[in-house]
Amino acid sequence: MEQFGNLQAVLWDMDGVLLDSQAAHFIAFREVLAKYDFQVLDSVFKPTFGMTNEQVIRHVSGERFTDEEVETICREKDEQFRVVIAKEAVFMAGVEHWLTEFKKNGVRQALASSGSRENIYTILDALKARPYFDAVVSGEDCASKPDPAVFLRAAGQLDVDSSACLVIEDSIAGIQAAAAAGMKCLAVTTTYPREKLPQTDLILTGLNGLTAEMLAALFRV
User: Can you give the pTM of this predicted structure?
Assistant: First the structure.
């Protein structure tokens, strides 16, 4: 691990980091909401990326749906999402390389996502990515980002101090959660342009631009 300074663990977000799942989420929401005679535009949906299903529905529909209807829509949306993403999941550029490099060099890895556990494992299986991860924390396990709980829980499962963790994120809420957890953060501009992201430790267009030297500089001993 010396080539990465004192980096001991990488905590990966999933949607927008491991893979581009935004279109699959939108398709699933659009198809399910259409059954309830409700249309949602892509321009309205895009700012919700990174939110929980319930937060998305409340954001786009206000008080239109009852709590019971929201619960049903969330369940149906996830079922449809899993059908779509199982056929279309591919790693984003540079991701598989770094998953392999970190594992080869003894850096522990966790997936820390606001998604449901079933969604997470559907995607990991589609990508054949389970062997890379030593821990998985889902939105069902703790409070949603920007609460830091998902990252703190992941670090705890890996038994690594926050100061030795790198979070890889694409969302505003995720970057805020990493900061609140006291962790360094690499943000990728796959969902939001650089100017809309909060200030953080490192911002790249994608992981194919990441180098060992950048990591060593972030985690200089």
Answer: 0.88
